[in-house]
Design a protein that fits this description.
Layout: E1 2-7, H1 10-17, H2 20-27, E2 32-37, E3 50-51, E4 61-62, H3 64-78, E5 83-93, H4 96-102, E6 107-112, H5 120-126, E7 129-132, H6 142-153, E8 186-187, E9 190-191, H7 201-219, H8 231-247
Parallel strand pairs: 1-2, 1-6, 5-6, 5-7
Antiparallel strand pairs: 3-4, 8-9
Bound molecules: 6-chloroguanine.
């Protein structure tokens, strides 16, 4: 996977993604990250990339030409027109199924806007996907593109080791992850649940599934509508719901 990030702040991207699991995958050559400074494509003698909005109003607008120049260089380099993701609070809200779909691409371009946005004409010309990372407003598209690159990379083959593998985590089966414990067996008077010390693998598995169901009911009940549960697990969920309501005043 090769990520191409078009931004006015390339150091933010390379600095933010250079460590930990993503940094290791770059060293191994499994993923590649090129952060391009849109300012390098300014055709203005002062290297300006923004101007006042036609029609008036607050703030500045990023001009079409430098953005298009940066994009065209990517197309020239890779030899085809890739998906171009524009990070905007007006986009479709990013989720795990988008992660898994985007992880199949060979190249992805992330276009990061600033100021009051980017001239609409270049967006019409190059953008294939408008994506938001949630319903709040950030100052630019850099943090959202880093969030997306982190999440997508976890699904690029070879990025995670077997142990780190994505298969058994939150949102698998639409259930949240069960709680984890490590040594010591007692900390501040709190003991690790005894079943985890028992070595009885079937009981541990059952306990973890039940904890996942309980945690999902408490924290993200809307996910349970799409969760895949066995008959016994459905009964367990019904029991939890009854208990929950019986505790309310
Ligand atoms: Cl993708 N961009 C900006 N500027 N703000 C956001 C966002 C994106 N997603 C949520 N808020």
């Amino acid at each position: 996977m090769h990520y191409h990030v078009l931004t006015l702040f390339p150091e933010m991207i390379t600095g933010g993604l250079g460590t930990s699991i993503i940094g290791r995958a770059m060293e191994q050559g499994i993923i590649e990250l090129t952060a391009t400074n849109i300012r390098d494509y300014s055709t203005n003698k002062h290297m300006k990339v923004d101007d006042y909005p036609y029609g008036g109003g607050a703030g500045m607008v990023m001009q079409a030409e430098p953005v298009y120049g940066a994009y065209c260089d990517v197309v020239k380099k890779i030899g085809y027109k890739p998906r171009v993701i524009y990070l905007t609070p007006q986009g479709k809200v990013f989720n795990q199924s988008m992660v898994e779909e985007l992880a199949k691409e060979k190249d992805l371009v992330f276009l990061c806007g600033h100021y009051e946005g980017i001239d609409e004409r270049v967006l019409e010309e190059i953008v294939t996907d408008y994506v938001s990372i949630g319903d709040y407003v950030l100052t630019g598209g850099e943090l959202p593109s880093m969030v997306m690159i982190d999440a997508i990379s976890r699904f690029v083959p070879g990025v995670l080791s077997n142990e780190e593998s994505a298969q058994f985590e939150s949102f698998q089966d639409n259930l949240l992850e069960y709680p984890q414990y490590s040594r010591p067996a007692e900390w501040m008077g709190k003991r690790v649940p005894e079943v985890l010390l028992s070595g009885h693998h079937a009981n541990i598995e059952k306990w973890r599934r039940e904890q996942s169901i309980q945690r999902t009911l408490e924290r993200r009940p809307e996910l349970l509508e799409n969760a895949v549960l066995s008959k016994k697990e459905k009964n367990y969920l019904e029991k939890l719901k009854k208990e929950k309501y019986s505790h309310e005043c």
